[in-house]
């Protein structure tokens, strides 16, 4: 069942119910006490000042002191519980978004940029979590209004009714005024998230852009995207200003009416001087709850817009479904493709026998990508099947597939940390470092494998990154390892060493090398040639070099 933005908000609040309730009770006590301050001052005027009683004056001043101490304590504790609820709710939402983005089933047809997902998982999650922090203050504002109304009713029935009957229309108008802000806030978040996504992509591809001289085109693209985001932000800011100004004007009119009625009653002798002072003080106090309502309404509008964006991510359909079939343990690693059709692949059929080092040469890069997706179950075939040890992978849960089949893509990223942190993924770390020639990389680094690596490994050269990524894949010691062009940025001497190390380390384990590297293909047991998405031939590397199409793909 799909999740709506409203349901996201409800779950966020329900998950922090205890903290929200405690915050609401404490802040309600605070606002109720604030409303009582002018009432107590009115009592002081009537009973102590007018009666000229020093003892009564001291007594009520002590009462005021106790009241202010209680106000300070309740506010501090209420704000603390509210902030805790907001931060914990935002944290839980970030985890939900992260789990969905990292779900083994992936996301089908997602055009969402990585930076946009980051924006949703951070900024939008925070805005939704903030709702937990502002709701208690909304309740507190209502409590303050209620205390004010009761106090005014005890002084004068017309004053009390004015507040009680005038508040609901004010709240409804505040809700209507917040609608444009909600719409523009959603547009602002969408534009901001898209700009973040574009910026992330441009930074990630900075070296490529410089290499092809496309810096100006990239800057122009980001400038347009950023300007769109700026315009959306300015529209949202204008909506926020109009929202706050309109509510402030409504509040001022309402307070003026209360003060006018109170002054008329005092002039007629229907209420005392102390009651008039209390009524005017309460009228001024009413600015506080209505200001709170303005703030809460604006935060709720932004929270609803962000919750809808979070819901879109949580509702994203998986690229592949689950499965109940079980792969054998330990897996022998017999991979078989039967009449496989997907994207650029046409009736592809071949097998990798247990323990075999199989090379696959694809003349079409799209065919190689589709093959990798099917082997790792990032996507299911449109026709045919991929099986491991006679078990169709489309019937196995994706997370279980990846316990047996590890696909190391050509563009694998490194993570911030040390070189060693990026490699230590399995039982054969030391052997993998040697096989992938990372020991040579380490010797050129200031702290060896303990050298820090920046985000995505940008502090390393292209060849160094590739070798570290290959070592990470080898260290996992998966029963079936699929590698895609792991040495394109490596010199020929190092590539020959890696080919020998790879063949030795993976002996007895099934390995599929999707590559056009002659050095790697020469180390394989057998090679399958895919031309125009179809199997065009099989044999050893030496045998296939007699074919013109193979030579064109490998030796050109």
Automatic annotation (TrEMBL):
Its main location: membrane. Residues 21-302 form the ABC transmembrane type-1 domain. GO terms for cellular component: plasma membrane. Keywords: Membrane, Transmembrane, Transmembrane helix. It holds the Pfam family ABC_tran. CDD domains: ABC_6TM_exporters (cd07346). It is a multi-pass membrane protein. One of its GO terms (molecular function) is ATP binding. Residues 308-556 form the ABC transporter domain. This is Multidrug ABC transporter ATPase.
